[in-house]
Protein backbone atom coordinates (compact mmCIF):
# COMPACT_ATOMS: atom_id res chain seq x y z
CA UNK A 1 0.00 0.00 0.00
CA UNK A 2 2.91 2.35 -0.55
CA UNK A 3 0.89 4.29 -3.16
CA UNK A 4 -1.50 5.30 -0.38
CA UNK A 5 1.37 6.21 1.90
CA UNK A 6 3.05 8.28 -0.79
CA UNK A 7 -0.23 10.11 -1.43
CA UNK A 8 -0.42 10.97 2.27
CA UNK A 9 3.20 12.14 2.40
CA UNK A 10 2.52 14.67 -0.36
CA UNK A 11 -0.48 16.22 1.40
CA UNK A 12 -0.09 19.73 2.85
CA UNK A 13 0.19 19.55 6.61
CA UNK A 14 1.65 16.07 6.85
CA UNK A 15 5.33 17.09 6.95
CA UNK A 16 4.84 19.35 9.97
CA UNK A 17 2.43 17.00 11.78
CA UNK A 18 3.58 15.32 14.98
CA UNK A 19 0.45 13.27 15.66
CA UNK A 20 -1.22 11.53 12.72
CA UNK A 21 -4.47 9.55 12.64
CA UNK A 22 -5.44 7.02 9.97
CA UNK A 23 -9.18 6.33 9.83
CA UNK A 24 -10.38 2.99 8.45
CA UNK A 25 -6.96 1.38 8.22
CA UNK A 26 -7.96 -2.03 6.84
CA UNK A 27 -4.82 -4.18 7.09
CA UNK A 28 -2.91 -1.21 8.61
CA UNK A 29 -0.29 -1.41 5.87
CA UNK A 30 -0.29 2.32 5.16
CA UNK A 31 0.23 3.29 8.80
CA UNK A 32 2.98 0.69 9.13
CA UNK A 33 4.73 2.10 6.07
CA UNK A 34 4.45 5.67 7.36
CA UNK A 35 5.45 4.85 10.94
CA UNK A 36 8.60 3.10 9.79
CA UNK A 37 9.46 5.89 7.36
CA UNK A 38 8.81 8.66 9.92
CA UNK A 39 9.96 7.41 13.36
CA UNK A 40 9.76 10.97 14.76
CA UNK A 41 5.96 11.10 14.29
CA UNK A 42 3.26 9.48 16.43
CA UNK A 43 0.73 7.44 14.45
CA UNK A 44 -2.65 6.13 15.60
CA UNK A 45 -4.56 3.84 13.25
CA UNK A 46 -8.21 2.82 13.72
CA UNK A 47 -10.58 0.38 12.09
CA UNK A 48 -13.88 -1.10 13.27
CA UNK A 49 -12.65 -4.65 12.63
CA UNK A 50 -9.26 -6.36 12.92
CA UNK A 51 -9.04 -8.50 9.79
CA UNK A 52 -6.90 -11.60 9.35
CA UNK A 53 -4.52 -9.59 7.17
CA UNK A 54 -4.30 -6.91 9.84
CA UNK A 55 -3.44 -9.44 12.53
CA UNK A 56 -0.60 -10.79 10.38
CA UNK A 57 0.93 -7.32 10.25
CA UNK A 58 0.84 -6.70 13.99
CA UNK A 59 4.15 -8.47 14.59
CA UNK A 60 5.90 -5.62 12.79
CA UNK A 61 4.37 -2.68 14.67
CA UNK A 62 6.97 -0.03 15.57
CA UNK A 63 6.79 1.82 18.88
CA UNK A 64 5.43 5.01 17.30
CA UNK A 65 2.28 3.29 15.99
CA UNK A 66 -0.82 2.51 18.06
CA UNK A 67 -3.51 0.21 16.66
CA UNK A 68 -7.09 0.77 17.83
CA UNK A 69 -10.26 -1.18 17.08
CA UNK A 70 -12.94 1.50 17.00
CA UNK A 71 -15.83 2.98 15.04
CA UNK A 72 -15.10 6.01 12.85
CA UNK A 73 -18.42 7.63 13.78
CA UNK A 74 -17.48 8.22 17.42
CA UNK A 75 -13.97 9.24 18.50
CA UNK A 76 -14.79 9.65 22.18
CA UNK A 77 -11.62 7.75 23.06
CA UNK A 78 -9.53 10.67 21.75
CA UNK A 79 -9.01 14.07 23.36
CA UNK A 80 -10.16 17.27 21.69
CA UNK A 81 -7.50 18.95 19.51
CA UNK A 82 -5.20 15.93 19.79
CA UNK A 83 -4.15 15.24 16.17
CA UNK A 84 -2.29 17.47 13.74
CA UNK A 85 -3.27 15.51 10.66
CA UNK A 86 -5.89 12.85 9.88
CA UNK A 87 -6.42 10.88 6.70
CA UNK A 88 -8.50 8.10 5.18
CA UNK A 89 -8.44 6.27 1.85
CA UNK A 90 -11.57 4.57 0.43
CA UNK A 91 -13.38 4.87 3.76
CA UNK A 92 -15.84 7.78 3.54
CA UNK A 93 -18.04 5.86 1.06
CA UNK A 94 -18.64 3.34 3.85
CA UNK A 95 -19.83 5.90 6.43
CA UNK A 96 -23.55 6.53 6.19
CA UNK A 97 -23.48 8.95 9.13
CA UNK A 98 -20.97 11.21 7.39
CA UNK A 99 -22.06 14.37 9.23
CA UNK A 100 -21.30 12.73 12.60
CA UNK A 101 -17.99 11.41 11.33
CA UNK A 102 -16.84 14.84 10.16
CA UNK A 103 -18.01 16.48 13.38
CA UNK A 104 -16.03 14.01 15.49
CA UNK A 105 -12.94 14.27 13.30
CA UNK A 106 -13.14 18.07 13.48
CA UNK A 107 -13.22 17.85 17.27
CA UNK A 108 -10.07 15.74 17.61
CA UNK A 109 -8.01 17.67 15.04
CA UNK A 110 -6.25 20.78 16.39
CA UNK A 111 -6.81 24.30 15.03
CA UNK A 112 -4.97 24.57 11.73
CA UNK A 113 -4.91 20.79 11.44
CA UNK A 114 -6.02 18.87 8.36
CA UNK A 115 -8.27 15.98 7.44
CA UNK A 116 -7.49 14.71 3.95
CA UNK A 117 -9.41 11.82 2.45
CA UNK A 118 -9.78 9.98 -0.82
CA UNK A 119 -13.38 8.88 -1.30
CA UNK A 120 -13.98 6.24 -4.01
CA UNK A 121 -16.17 4.97 -5.40
CA UNK A 122 -19.17 7.22 -5.02
CA UNK A 123 -22.49 5.37 -5.08
CA UNK A 124 -23.29 7.41 -8.21
CA UNK A 125 -20.27 6.00 -10.05
CA UNK A 126 -20.17 2.99 -12.38
CA UNK A 127 -18.72 0.76 -9.65
CA UNK A 128 -20.40 2.24 -6.62
CA UNK A 129 -21.87 -1.17 -5.85
CA UNK A 130 -18.39 -2.31 -4.64
CA UNK A 131 -18.95 -5.81 -5.98
CA UNK A 132 -15.59 -5.84 -7.72
CA UNK A 133 -14.16 -6.24 -4.19
CA UNK A 134 -16.25 -9.40 -3.91
CA UNK A 135 -15.03 -11.18 -7.03
CA UNK A 136 -12.79 -10.23 -9.94
CA UNK A 137 -15.24 -11.63 -12.51
CA UNK A 138 -18.21 -9.71 -11.12
CA UNK A 139 -20.89 -9.75 -13.87
CA UNK A 140 -22.79 -6.68 -12.65
CA UNK A 141 -22.91 -4.14 -15.51
CA UNK A 142 -21.57 -0.64 -14.97
CA UNK A 143 -24.08 1.68 -13.23
CA UNK A 144 -26.71 -1.09 -13.09
CA UNK A 145 -27.03 -0.81 -9.29
CA UNK A 146 -28.56 2.61 -10.02
CA UNK A 147 -31.23 1.53 -12.51
CA UNK A 148 -32.12 -2.11 -11.74
CA UNK A 149 -34.38 -3.03 -8.85
CA UNK A 150 -33.49 -5.98 -6.65
CA UNK A 151 -35.89 -8.26 -8.56
CA UNK A 152 -34.57 -7.07 -11.91
CA UNK A 153 -30.98 -7.60 -10.81
CA UNK A 154 -31.85 -11.07 -9.52
CA UNK A 155 -33.33 -12.03 -12.86
CA UNK A 156 -30.28 -10.67 -14.69
CA UNK A 157 -27.85 -12.63 -12.52
CA UNK A 158 -29.67 -15.98 -12.57
CA UNK A 159 -27.89 -17.23 -15.70
CA UNK A 160 -24.58 -15.59 -14.82
CA UNK A 161 -23.88 -16.76 -11.27
CA UNK A 162 -24.46 -19.86 -9.13
CA UNK A 163 -27.63 -19.60 -7.05
CA UNK A 164 -25.83 -19.01 -3.75
CA UNK A 165 -23.69 -16.33 -5.40
CA UNK A 166 -26.81 -14.55 -6.70
CA UNK A 167 -28.10 -14.24 -3.15
CA UNK A 168 -24.76 -12.94 -1.97
CA UNK A 169 -24.58 -10.40 -4.79
CA UNK A 170 -28.08 -9.11 -4.01
CA UNK A 171 -27.17 -8.75 -0.36
CA UNK A 172 -24.05 -6.75 -1.23
CA UNK A 173 -25.98 -4.53 -3.62
CA UNK A 174 -29.19 -3.83 -1.76
CA UNK A 175 -28.76 -4.77 1.90
CA UNK A 176 -25.10 -4.42 2.85
CA UNK A 177 -24.96 -2.18 5.90
CA UNK A 178 -21.50 -0.69 5.52
CA UNK A 179 -22.14 1.29 2.34
CA UNK A 180 -23.20 4.90 2.66
CA UNK A 181 -24.99 4.89 -0.73
CA UNK A 182 -24.22 8.60 -1.02
CA UNK A 183 -23.91 10.19 -4.44
CA UNK A 184 -21.17 12.65 -5.29
CA UNK A 185 -23.48 15.64 -4.72
CA UNK A 186 -24.52 14.25 -1.32
CA UNK A 187 -20.92 13.93 -0.14
CA UNK A 188 -20.00 17.37 -1.47
CA UNK A 189 -22.88 19.09 0.33
CA UNK A 190 -22.15 17.33 3.61
CA UNK A 191 -18.47 18.25 3.39
CA UNK A 192 -19.18 21.85 2.38
CA UNK A 193 -21.60 22.29 5.29
CA UNK A 194 -19.33 20.68 7.89
CA UNK A 195 -17.35 22.60 10.52
CA UNK A 196 -14.21 22.13 8.42
CA UNK A 197 -13.12 24.60 5.75
CA UNK A 198 -13.00 22.94 2.35
CA UNK A 199 -9.51 23.58 0.97
CA UNK A 200 -9.55 21.30 -2.06
CA UNK A 201 -11.95 19.00 -3.90
CA UNK A 202 -10.33 17.15 -6.81
CA UNK A 203 -12.69 14.95 -8.82
CA UNK A 204 -11.51 11.60 -10.14
CA UNK A 205 -12.97 10.72 -13.54
CA UNK A 206 -14.95 7.52 -14.09
CA UNK A 207 -13.48 5.77 -17.13
CA UNK A 208 -16.71 3.79 -17.67
CA UNK A 209 -18.92 6.85 -18.12
CA UNK A 210 -20.97 7.12 -21.32
CA UNK A 211 -24.22 8.70 -22.50
CA UNK A 212 -25.67 5.20 -22.88
CA UNK A 213 -25.39 4.66 -19.13
CA UNK A 214 -26.70 8.14 -18.39
CA UNK A 215 -29.89 7.30 -20.30
CA UNK A 216 -30.36 4.00 -18.47
CA UNK A 217 -29.86 5.53 -15.02
CA UNK A 218 -32.03 8.59 -15.56
CA UNK A 219 -34.86 6.47 -17.00
CA UNK A 220 -35.47 4.79 -13.61
CA UNK A 221 -33.07 6.56 -11.22
CA UNK A 222 -33.71 4.55 -8.07
CA UNK A 223 -31.31 6.66 -5.98
CA UNK A 224 -31.98 10.11 -7.43
CA UNK A 225 -28.65 10.48 -9.21
CA UNK A 226 -28.09 13.67 -11.18
CA UNK A 227 -26.34 13.66 -14.55
CA UNK A 228 -23.51 15.84 -13.21
CA UNK A 229 -22.53 13.15 -10.67
CA UNK A 230 -22.08 10.29 -13.08
CA UNK A 231 -18.77 11.19 -14.79
CA UNK A 232 -16.88 10.94 -11.49
CA UNK A 233 -15.61 7.87 -9.68
CA UNK A 234 -14.35 9.62 -6.55
CA UNK A 235 -12.61 12.67 -5.15
CA UNK A 236 -9.52 13.70 -3.22
CA UNK A 237 -10.53 16.13 -0.51
CA UNK A 238 -8.57 18.39 1.81
CA UNK A 239 -10.20 19.95 4.88
CA UNK A 240 -8.82 22.33 7.50
CA UNK A 241 -9.94 23.21 11.02
CA UNK A 242 -9.92 27.00 11.43
- How big a fraction of the residues is strand? 15-25%
Question: Mean pLDDT, rounded to whole units?
Answer: 92
Could you describe the largest sheet, including whether it forms a barrel?
A: 7 strands, mixed
Unreliably modeled segments = none
What is the strand tally? 7
- Estimated helix fraction: 25-40%
N-to-C SSE string, H for helix and E for strand: HEHEHEEHEHHHEHE
Rough shape? globular
Structural class: alpha/beta
- Figure out the total of helices: 8
Rg value? 19 Å
Describe this structure in words.
This protein has 242 residues and is an alpha/beta fold. It contains 8 helices and 7 strands. It has helices spanning 2-9, 29-37, 52-57, 98-108, 150-157, 163-174, 184-192, 211-220; strands at 19-23, 42-47, 65-69, 83-89, 109-119, 197-205, 232-240. It has a 7-stranded mixed sheet with strand order 3-2-1-4-5-7-6, with helices on both faces. Helix 2 (29-37) links the parallel strand 1 and strand 2 (42-47). Helix 1 packs across helix 2 (29-37). It is globular, with a radius of gyration of 19 Å. The mean pLDDT is 92.
Amino acid sequence: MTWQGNWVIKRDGFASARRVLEIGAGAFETSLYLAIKFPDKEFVSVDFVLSANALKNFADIPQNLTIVKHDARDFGIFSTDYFDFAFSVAVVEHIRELEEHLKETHRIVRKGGRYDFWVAPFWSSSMGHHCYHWRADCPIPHYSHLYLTKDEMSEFLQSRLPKNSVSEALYLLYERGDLARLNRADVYEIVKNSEFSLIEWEDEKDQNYSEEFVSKVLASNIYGVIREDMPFKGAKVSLMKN
